[in-house]
Design goal:
Four copies of one chain form a homotetramer.
Chain A: H1 7-17, H2 19-22, E1 25-30, E2 35-39, H3 54-73, E3 80-88, E4 98-107, E5 111-120, E6 128-135
Antiparallel strand pairs in A: 1-2, 2-4, 3-6, 4-5, 5-6
Organism (chains A, B, C, D): Paracoccus saliphilus
GO molecular function, one term (chains A, B, C, D): fatty acyl-CoA hydrolase activity
Keywords (chains A, B, C, D): Hydrolase
Amino acid sequence: MDIVMDADALNEFLSSEFPQVAAEYRVERVDRSRLMVRLKVGEAHLRPGGTVSGPSIFALADLAVYCAILARIGPVALAVTTNASIDFMRKPEAGKDLIAECRVLKLGRVLAVAEALIYSKGGAEPVARCSMTYSIPPKR
Amino acid sequence: MDIVMDADALNEFLSSEFPQVAAEYRVERVDRSRLMVRLKVGEAHLRPGGTVSGPSIFALADLAVYCAILARIGPVALAVTTNASIDFMRKPEAGKDLIAECRVLKLGRVLAVAEALIYSKGGAEPVARCSMTYSIPPKR
Amino acid sequence: MDIVMDADALNEFLSSEFPQVAAEYRVERVDRSRLMVRLKVGEAHLRPGGTVSGPSIFALADLAVYCAILARIGPVALAVTTNASIDFMRKPEAGKDLIAECRVLKLGRVLAVAEALIYSKGGAEPVARCSMTYSIPPKR
Amino acid sequence: MDIVMDADALNEFLSSEFPQVAAEYRVERVDRSRLMVRLKVGEAHLRPGGTVSGPSIFALADLAVYCAILARIGPVALAVTTNASIDFMRKPEAGKDLIAECRVLKLGRVLAVAEALIYSKGGAEPVARCSMTYSIPPKR
């Protein structure tokens, strides 16, 4: 599974295709084994009490998996999530960005499976884990 | 599992506790068998092409399950999602609100399990299904 | 989604294709809305203490979903499970068979999604819930 | 999370508590980061065509997670699975045992979360991945 889009290419793609959310995220690293994305945590992501909301963590995992697949199949693909399973394990630390660390487990002709661990920036224990299946559109 | 908060009480609770998101949702019906919540779909929920985003559907399911649990245990509880599994099955219809129809399968001392089907308003086939586990805080 | 295999046809198919397990199960009812399968609980399904084991409940849910898909696409298909999510909610009653009640939520060209609730025979509350995705083989 | 039961202790525990299944499995390695269990694949685990069945893979993952938790909390505990999510990604190789490699992500007071990757013995790519939540019984 060669990498065909690096972190810069992915960030540019997000900015042009998803301008409304791209400013919240930054792909920080891509290689054959791992992709890392940062969520720049802001007011919109917080629950009362200052914790990052579950849906914001889900959105980060989804974006990380999406980028990890695009990194391998290129920017034209219209991949969509078909299944996700997520465990919320710890409260994110207040005032810290979140980092998703994503690994692609299978990149098939029709389906891709990946998993992500989510950490508070600098934290040792994962806040959440997520596995996702994406449907890969047929090549034209 | 008696209902201790009706739709009005839940909507008031959301407005006071989650003012930043409450305007997007409305609990439309609560009884012992079902709870229904509407997501008023707006620009912020859309992906390019006009489809409601996966994270927005996840957030709707999460809110529906949360409300279904509060309807049974009352407004003081600090319940949190511990696990969610979601299947995205069909593209939501453009320009339609989404309706989550939620059913509580178990309300234990420590854990609650519920499932939700998500429909485009007026649609016959579900757009997504979701099951969630919530951790119930111990009574004081 | 017309039904092309009824309960008798499914039971015969199981007997001829999966003789080693078919004796444990019986498809009891199939229609457009529901399929019901019984697990005849025996020693091999029990954990110490007399409870049906988790893997036996998983196997029942898997078989129910498989039959519900075959009921709609016919006996030739080589459908395989790609994803399953299961919640174990209550202890099955000792000495009772288990009933899986399965509903197909989507039958696409490539993927099918179904869910099953598992009950102790005669019980009112579900023992477990399961959702599964099956990959449908391409038509020849 | 100190290890309080090593591989030998776990294998002895399985033999005495689950004599009907213990012969199929062997815990091969336990340390703070990983636990590995082998499923000795036999006729009973196969589907027509010689592939290991989905429920057999589920049972292996379940046993691996159970052992990984016992390795940390000791043999007396009556932990039970509350949730599992599994992705079946590749066909196991015919005639090979399966290896589950399990990692504990959280060991809380009430819930434990772990994940397992399943490989055909000697294979480089995982056959399946599974994440599970166990409920930990209160200390007496």
